[in-house]
Amino acid sequence: MGNGFQKASRVMYFLATGVLMLFALVFIGVAAYSVFHSLLLLDIEATTHGLLDGVGMIVLAIAVFEIAKYLYEEELEHDRELRHADEARRTLTKFLTTIIIAASLEGLVLVFEARTSQMSDMVYPAILLMVIVFMVLGLGLYQLISRRAETIDPKEGDS
C-alpha cells in the first residue's frame, strides 16, 4: 500500500509541476500581450501602466516557476524527506524574495494609479507597502534566527 501511495504521490507532484510551469508560461504570454497592447495605444500613461503590469506578471511567472522547480527538485528528483536547515533557509528566502518583489511592484503600480485620483485611493497601496516592509523585516529576522540555530552544535548540550 505504501508503494502505491508513493507512486500516486509522485504522479500528483509531476502533474502539479507541469501545470505550474504551464501557468508560468501563460503569465509571460499575458505580460508580453499587455506590453505590446499598451505600446500600440500611443498613450504614455497606458504604456507606463502596461509596462508595470508586464513586469509584475513576469515576476509572478518567476514565483510560480520557482514553486514548480521546488516541487520537481525536492519531490521528484531528490525524493527526500529531510533537508538541511541551510537548504530550507535558502529555498524559503528565495521564494519569499520573489513574492516580496512581486508585491512591491503591485504596490508601485497601485501608487501610480492612485496618484491621478483621490487621495483616499492611496490607503490600499500604502497598507500594501507597509505589509511589504513587515515581510522584509520578518524575512530578515527568520534568516538571523535560522543562521544562529545552524551554528548551535546539538552535541554540546549533551554534556
What descriptors fit this protein?
159 residues, transmembrane helix, membrane, transmembrane, GNAT family acetyltransferase
Sequence-ordered SSE layout with sheet pairings:
Elements: H1 2-40, H2 44-77, H3 85-114, H4 123-151
Helix pairs in contact: 1-2, 2-3, 3-4
Regions with little confidence, pLDDT below 50 for 5+ residues: none
Task: Find the structural class using helix and strand composition.
Answer: mainly alpha
Helix and strand run: HHHH
Estimate nothing, just give the exact number of structural domains: 2
- Specify the biggest β-sheet: none
Termini separation: 43 Å
| Cα radius of gyration in angstroms | 21 Å
- Tell the overall outline: flat
The beta-strand count equals 0
Q: Which percent band covers the strand fraction? A: under 5%
Q: How many DSSP H or I helices? A: 4
Helix content estimate: over 70%
Mean pLDDT rating: 82
Structure description:
- This protein has 4 helices and no strands.
- It has 2 domains: 1-81; 82-154.
- It has helices at residues 2-40, 44-77, 85-114, 123-151.
- α1 packs antiparallel against α2 (44-77), α2 (44-77) runs antiparallel to α3 and α3 runs antiparallel to α4 (123-151).
- It is an all-alpha fold and 159 residues long.
